[in-house]
Amino acid sequence: MLDEHDHRAIGQRLDLFHLQEEAPGMVFWHPRGFRLYQLLEDQVRQRMRREGYQEVRTPQILSQELWERSGHWDNFRQNMFVLGDGERQLAVKPVSCPGHIELVQRMSPSYRDLPLRLGEFGLVHRSEPSGALHGLFRLRQFTQDDGHIFCAEEQVEREVIAFVRALHAFYAGFGFEHVEVAFSGRPPSRAGSDAVWDQAEAWLQSAARAAGLECRMQPGEGAFYGPKLEFILKDRLGRDWQCGTIQLDLVLPERFDLRYTDASGAKRHPVMLHRALFGSLERFIAILLEHHAGALPAWLSPEQVVVASVGDKALHYAEKLSERLREAGCRASADVRGESLSRKILDAHQSGLPYIAVVGAREAEANSVRLRLRDGSQQDLSWDDAVARLAAECQPRRAS
Asked: Are both 262 and 303 inside the same structural domain?
């Protein structure tokens, strides 16, 4: 029996998603849950557009040769789904990095094109042991908000500062006010020489200082290709969750012999920065659900308003009001079932709706609405005032 505060129980109550044995470690998203998923995508896309990222899509399955070149075959193979293709082997991608490198190879950039920023909602698969799977927290199939910045050495500091500048405000918009930063250094098993790692760590530490970050040190916790900054959120229960990250990579550009043409005409390896805001969209949804106990902020609620009719004379009025609210940008529906008002209110609360607009014969005659909030408070408003207020309070959030 799941605890009521477990995100899996909340997901069932809000009708967001389900998991089943026939698809271990993978999610069936219901319409309401997929709307929440898309709202998170929208937040990342807003930032990508503002920061000059180009969104791309790369293949799900790539050859062993490419994974050997990236180092994943030697350092990450136990977490990859491998399949045969005649005499050669392929693997379902656990990350999007090599695909983005292949795209940049085709672009043949010069120094004028840098920094070059690519972003992808990368659907990835990892061969996690069945005993390690845990709801949305640990899956075999999930989506990373994957971004890669290809830049010159002298651009690293500016790019790291730009990434972290609005990060606190971004997370605060989801209700996370407390953010810590950790610096994860070279792991025991890694690619690249000590000299390369010395340089990568020095550059990232310098950029972190320039960004005004105070980092706790996590020796040995970096990726096999480079050190990283990890951004850790604290939820309402005091638990820490590592979400965002930016990683400095000098290894993969060298292994792929990725080069750009500098101002003198010479060919140089770019610095590759791997960045993510959520890390895994699925995992972030689990954190959100538990942090808010299912009562998501109005802008983030998959359904924001239900118009509950009282009596047969208000059915048409309820339908008209829900239609008008949708036109005004609210995610609204009408509950015109032949149930009691108390039943409709209970169902709306169980579904996590922030607003209930109650309309009966009296409201229909007066062209008014009784607006009920999550805390049980109520207010009588005119049709126009109710629509204006709900449209304002339910409007999409502009990503910081």
From this structure: no
